[in-house]
Design goal:
The chain has 309 residues and is of the alpha/beta class. Helices cover 50% and strands 13% of the residues.
Length: 309
């Protein structure tokens, strides 16, 4: 048993100084642990943003593929087709453009212009109030389930901080306002279609709110609202919105296309990607797969329309 004596703790009397040292060490450890829990290491965290209570700051969000998957104008077109505003051949064109946009991840200027022209011709002669009411229904049918949760959380963070949040989009302002209202945002800047006595004429007021026009709209709104743009944030997926993103002190690239991703990295802008399957490192897909998916989607849309007749 003597050989096992080393396993038995030896009793030693503690001096007053050793007791004091032990208690001091334990107290220091307790305080250090408590402070670490209450205050994370500065090197491990970013400065608080958005800044709570900063009424000179606001956030501006692009809509298509930033807040919502796909293009709002195309979803709106699906809803109008369902309500017999136009023919099957127009639906096929909308389906092609929407599928191309979803798969390529970037806006094609010709597609967007064609979609706007189609939408204007479709709503010509209809009352503004009618389209606003239909817009509420279309949101529930085609848009509500396509909101990116991650982007929605970013917008909510600004709202929780007491800041105003605006959508800035080339989509019709009436549709943009419906989406902003349903998401609990402050409001929306969008393309304005001309109306006389509450009836659409089929023309635009000025030009679509796209590219540099978005930056001008944000600048004008900031002046009206008394905002400091260096304290504001902007979010977009498209390189077309670089003018708007460059206008604010806190630009974010959300689900960025290849050009915006490259620009954001060069400028050290923050990036967020909420897509699955393709993380925007390579936005494109094999051509054969893209054509097949588009053709299938268009054929399905036409077949569905025929079954409904």
């Amino acid at each position: 048993m003597a050989a096992l004596g080393w396993l038995t703790p030896r009793r030693r009397s503690a001096t007053a100084r050793s007791v004091l040292a032990g208690e001091a060490s334990a107290e220091a450890a307790r305080k250090s642990s408590q402070e670490a829990q209450e205050t994370p290491q500065v090197a491990d965290r970013e400065p608080e943003f958005p800044v709570i209570g900063d009424d000179k700051a606001a956030a501006f969000f692009d809509l298509d593929n930033t807040v919502m998957q796909g293009a709002a104008l195309f979803h709106f077109g699906r809803g109008l087709y369902k309500r017999k505003f136009f023919e099957t051949r127009d639906l096929a064109k909308f389906a092609w453009q929407q599928a191309w946009f979803r798969l390529a991840g970037v806006e094609d200027p010709e597609h967007m212009q064609d979609a706007r022209d189609s939408a204007l011709s479709i709503v010509k002669g209809h009352r503004v109030a009618e389209l606003e009411s239909i817009g509420e229904e279309i949101y529930d049918e085609y848009m509500a389930d396509r909101i990116w949760p991650g982007t929605r959380a970013l917008a909510q963070a600004h709202l929780d901080a007491g800041q105003k949040v605006w959508l800035v989009t080339a989509a019709p302002v009436e549709i943009a306002q419906v989406i902003a209202r349903r998401l609990g945002l402050t409001g929306a800047l969008g393309t304005v279609a001309e109306s006389v006595d509450g009836i659409y004429t089929g023309k635009l007021v000025g030009e679509p709110l796209h590219g540099p026009a978005k930056a001008e709209a944000v600048r004008a709104l900031a002046a009206t609202e008394g905002l400091d743009l260096s304290r504001c944030a902007a979010y977009s997926d498209s390189h077309n919105d670089i003018p708007m993103l460059s206008l604010v002190g806190h630009p974010y690239a959300i689900n960025p296309d290849a050009k915006l991703r490259k620009h954001a990295r060069e400028k050290d802008w923050r990036l967020r990607d909420y897509r699955t399957g393709r993380k925007a490192a390579k936005v494109g897909i094999p051509a054969a797969a893209g054509v097949g998916a588009v053709a299938g989607g268009t054929a399905a849309a036409i077949a569905l329309s025929r079954r409904r007749r």
